Amino acid sequence: MKNKRLMGIIGLIAAAVIGTAIYSATAGKDNKAATSNEKAKVGVLQLVSHPSLDLIYKGIQDGLAEEGYDKDKVDIDFLNAEGDQNKVATMSKQLAEKDNQVLIGIATPSAQGLASATKDKPIVMGAVTDPVGANLVKDLKKPGGNITGVSDHNPTEQQLKLIKELTPNVKTIGVLYSTSEDNSKSQVEEFTKLAEKAGYKVVPYSVPSTNEIASTVSVMSGKVDAIWVPIDNTIASAFSTVVEANKDAKKPIFPSATAMVEAGGLGSVVVDQHDLGVATGKMAAKILKGQKPADTPVEIFSQGKSVINKKVADELGITIPESVLKDAGQVIK
Q1: 297 half-sphere exposure, CB direction, 13 A CA radius
Q2: Which letter, b or e, does each residue of 47-69 get, where b requires 16 or more Cβ atoms within 10 Å of its Cβ?
Q3: Which residues does residue 74 pair with via DSSP β-bridges, in sequence order?
Q4: H-helix or E-strand containing 178?
Q5: How far, rounded to the nearest angstrom, does the alpha carbon of residue 229 sit from its chain's CA centroid?
């Protein structure tokens, strides 16, 4: 009788233990499910409103979605500094102080602002031409800190080839860029070196802000045969001013972004901005999944496709070779 009673007690204890284990396991699953249902949080800082940078932001959203972070899985805290460096600093701090898991800087000044705001939170660069020169990473293959990302290295040699094909009589090229962007300075140095090696005379014209663009272009257009513009957000944001100031001189303008060619440039070889954004978004997704920026090599886009503005060519009396039209990635008519 005692044995039966003892066996019964043991049975009750065993049932209780098993029940507790099952409850704990179920609760654990519920907790994991709740965690998986929580949205990831990403902070994005864009330097200025411009078609090229807007395309990058669109690409970032698409890249995140491709990696499983669509609008139902991620909250994006997006801020635009509208070209104001003071706002870059303030907005960088705002994004860093919030509970964003990853921060993304679109354009060099934005990435630099975020880098100054935090040394702990992961930062992904979007469209930074010279990450090492901008003091964002120590090494492209081994960033070593809390920052990695995507670099859009200007396809300078391809651009010079296009300049030669479209305007074979050009001898002096004026370079228009902003002194406020480290990104631009390194591009100008590379372009000058390669252009002079190709036999061109290069004359640099720098501006501290958009306010000086019109007067600078008016001066330079009388002294050069063509104008080249690097990937420069200050110039890009006021490119209509460049085109207007060059209206009478009618010098061919070779910018470094599709949007600028569409807005009045003659042609260029460009890296696709949307593709840059997609790559940036995918890298941010990897960081969200646990990958460390320090161990994630910077992804470099260096090969571009030509974009030709046939309407501008007709206005300038330039005949585009059939071979150039055939190989063009885009012809604007």
Answers
A1: 4
A2: bbebbbbbbbbebbbbbbbebeb
A3: 40
A4: strand 172-178
A5: 17
Which pLDDT tens digit goes with each residue over 29-72?
Answer: 333 333 456 899 999 999 999 888 999 999 999 999 999 999 99
Residue of 66, 42, 233, 65 lying closest to 123 (CA atoms): 42
Question: Tens digit of pLDDT for each residue in 173-182?
Answer: 999 999 988 8
Cβ-based neighbour number of residue 256 at 10 Å: 29
Query: 3-state DSSP call for residue 16?
Result: helix
Strand positions, DSSP E, 92-171 = 102-106, 123-126, 147-152
The rounded distance, in Å, linking the Cα atoms of 194 and 199 is: 9
CA dist., res. 198 & res. 276, Å (int): 29
Side by side, the strands of the sheet bearing 330-332 are: 267-270, 305-309, 330-332
pTM assigned to the model? 0.78
| Separation CA 124–CA 103 (nearest Å) | 6
Two tokens at 223?
Answer: 């002294």
- Domains parsed from the chain with CATH numbers: 39-153+273-301 (3.40.50.2300), 156-270+305-332 (3.40.50.2300)
Degrees, nearest 5: CA angle 285-288-292:
100
Integer angstrom CA distances of residue 175 from 151, 255, 256, 268, 293: 22, 10, 12, 14, 35
Per-residue tokens: 295 = 């161990």
What token pair was written down for 316? 């300038």
Question: Alpha carbon 32 to chain centroid distance?
Answer: 34
